[in-house]
Task: structure prediction
Amino acid sequence: MLDFWLRVKDKLDFQDATQRDLAQNINESYNTLQSWINRDRLPNAEQAVKIADALNTSVEFLVTGKSNNRKNDHSKTVKLLEEAIENLQKEMQ
Result:
């Protein structure tokens, strides 16, 4: 089985949720979700994002097993915004 689906199953277990719950949360039929899992097929990008959101994790984590902390996903953006604010404050002085 693909590591992607093993991570999905681990997240479901952690949340005490079922594959049926996941299918409902991502607006897919249970049979479709089962087909992806049983055939070891990765979902397309849009579906992967829905799965990650439903499991409160990132696509990166589901695919690679790294960066399960959503706060890290935005760290570069936050740093750029902080630098921009700092530059604006300097210009206003």
Summary: Helices lie at 3-14, 19-25, 30-38, 45-54, 59-64, 70-73, 75-92. The mean pLDDT is 86. Residues 21 and 79 are 36 Å apart (CA to CA).
